[in-house]
Amino acid sequence: MTWQRSLREAVRSGLAVERTRLEPLAALRGAAGVAVVVALALWLTTPAFAASSAFGAFAAGMATFQRSWRPRPVLALAAGGGLAFSTFLGYLAAGHTAAFVALLAVWSLGAGTAWALGPTSGVVASLTVTVMLVVVTLPTSLPGALGHAGVIAFGGLVQAALIVVFPIRRWGAQRDALAEAFAAVADYARRLRHDPMAPFDPEPMMTARSAATLSPRQARRRPAQLRGVRAVAERIRPVLASLADPALGAAADGPERERARQLLAVAAEVLDAVAHSIRTGRPVRLPGQVAATLEEPEGGSPLRGPARRAAGRLAALLEEAVEEANGPSAADQAAVQGALLRPTVPKLLPLALRAVRRELRWDSPVLRHAVRLSVVTPLGYVLGWALPLGHGYWAPVTSTVVLRPDFSQTYARGVARFAGTLAGLLVAGAVMRFAAPGPLVCAGLAVVCLGLMYLLLRTGYAVASACLTAYVVFLLGMAGVGWHEAVTDRVLLTLLGGALAMAAYAVFPTWETTRLRERLADWLEATGRYAAEVVACYAHPADRRRHRRVREALLEFRSARLAWDQAVGRARVEPVRHRGLSPRASELAKDALTLMARGGMLLEAHLPSRDAPPIPEADAFAQAVRAATASGSAAIRQRSPFQPSLSTLRQRTADPALARATELIAEALEDLANAVRPSATAVREERGSGAARGKRRPTPEA
């Protein structure tokens, strides 16, 4: 994609307003927390202290609106504490420009590195930088700095208390995630009726698994509907694929196919009913014809062999899903004890250090983002105060909130920030100029704007930026800062901050396009491990650890596929030329690995029991898969062609499931080798650009 097209796409994405489900009660609660803190601060202290406390309550509320499975009170307290500490340090260094610039650089580097812990940590860490820049402009002494830090922490405490006292849709996020997983499996069943080779998107399953990872306190208190039912959805997915497969399940035409379509349609209805039950907390309600359809017809089922076994297992799993969703069962306590437990906050420190250590490499997007942020924020601060404009901190604030670890978000947010800031400044500036509201009215207007921002946060960054800008205008107006006198200066500084952020990414980029081969090799390795582990189960059916190894390999495969999908989505809008893996080759490689994973999924639906006789050739099949994927991943990374040795996989076996799976795996490996084989033109371009790779940026595509 050319720079022109990339920028046009960034403008379109940044100004887009999405229709999404609003959460008015949560927005009202967040705004009420800020209102309580501001009212108390105005009553007991000065407007400047009230502004500081409002920033703390605002940031704590923002943390609770981020996508996280942590308890919301914990997020609010962590955000309030982090802001209080950063603000106190900022006040200590604010009197010395050089010291404050150095503090900004170090703190911004740490805030950028926090993205290694996840998007929520990255967003909250960025807020500590922006609040430090804004709040330290309010003059104070050392005791005053302690007071400001205290009221900011108090704002986070109030938000946490309100969440505990007035819970909204308790366990709602976890219910939604689990319901989406069942809805995804239901949609998969419908698509299999018309396309037996339809792919399955694992992202809802991954999200549901993340939501099911609990703290010990959560594990003791979670509703019965959320205990163990996700595992049933996991087991249903391969059974559906096995039933629909023309070679292993129902025949492509005739009575078998019609019966398979009936069962798939009923499965979709049952799974949708289970999803609705989980989302609402009500019992499962099934249509009357469901039970009759699942029962074997009076004249006998037309299904035979593996297809008939899959149909029987599907009926049993659907019944289990309904029972699990309808209420407590005897296995509830065991499910609680066996739940994945999320580490407590104190135990997170070594995990966080390991996550940060993994990103300490020069090609890491997180490290590069941290370096960009640590340079741009101090530079914006110096330029903002050097220019003959008031309130120069507005430029580094804009740079901090615009910069993200990837190209598309950075440029889209830059456009949205400028448009939203312009709208918010014009509206709020006009109110301040012509109405001249007093401190109490300014406080009320700030709370209203913040409530609107919480409400519309997920509709688009431009809308949220407009509400946030108006909030800051009224809040600083309450503290006596004349925001209504120089709207033009704020617009120019916003433009400067956004331009600095965009220029920083262009000068020091992290292009996903050039890393696609690494992502593809990782995905191939994970897919090969999953397929090999499932195949090995047929050689060692009595091995008690087989299910755990298959499960771990499946999770690794899903993570690698999600990383690939995200990388391709980012690369699609980047203004750089591909390096040996064109968009067409990427699509073909994705199809090949999806086919390979399907082979493993079909085998997973028919895993042998522990007392089943072992299949000796399965061991050789598993070793062949491991060898082929290892050589293929190495060739992909080295940009060289590879020819997998598939003679072992093409040997005959008496087991129909194993025969079908090995056929698909061999076909997938051949398709992958053809997809990533570099053409003569690509090789010449790669060799010609190798000498100058470090001296010039990649040439945009024509």
From TrEMBL:
<feature type="transmembrane region" description="Helical">
    <location>
        <begin position="491"/>
        <end position="511"/>
    </location>
</feature>
<feature type="transmembrane region" description="Helical">
    <location>
        <begin position="21"/>
        <end position="42"/>
    </location>
</feature>
<dbReference type="Pfam" id="PF13515">
    <property type="entry name" value="FUSC_2"/>
</dbReference>
<feature type="transmembrane region" description="Helical">
    <location>
        <begin position="463"/>
        <end position="484"/>
    </location>
</feature>
<feature type="transmembrane region" description="Helical">
    <location>
        <begin position="124"/>
        <end position="142"/>
    </location>
</feature>
<protein>
    <submittedName>
        <fullName>FUSC family protein</fullName>
    </submittedName>
</protein>
<feature type="compositionally biased region" description="Basic residues">
    <location>
        <begin position="693"/>
        <end position="702"/>
    </location>
</feature>
<keyword id="KW-0812">Transmembrane</keyword>
<comment type="similarity">
    <text>Belongs to the YccS/YhfK family.</text>
</comment>
<keyword id="KW-1133">Transmembrane helix</keyword>
<feature type="region of interest" description="Disordered">
    <location>
        <begin position="677"/>
        <end position="702"/>
    </location>
</feature>
<feature type="transmembrane region" description="Helical">
    <location>
        <begin position="370"/>
        <end position="394"/>
    </location>
</feature>
<keyword id="KW-0472">Membrane</keyword>
<feature type="domain" description="Integral membrane bound transporter">
    <location>
        <begin position="380"/>
        <end position="503"/>
    </location>
</feature>
<feature type="transmembrane region" description="Helical">
    <location>
        <begin position="148"/>
        <end position="168"/>
    </location>
</feature>
<keyword id="KW-1003">Cell membrane</keyword>
<feature type="transmembrane region" description="Helical">
    <location>
        <begin position="414"/>
        <end position="432"/>
    </location>
</feature>
<dbReference type="InterPro" id="IPR049453">
    <property type="entry name" value="Memb_transporter_dom"/>
</dbReference>
<feature type="transmembrane region" description="Helical">
    <location>
        <begin position="439"/>
        <end position="457"/>
    </location>
</feature>
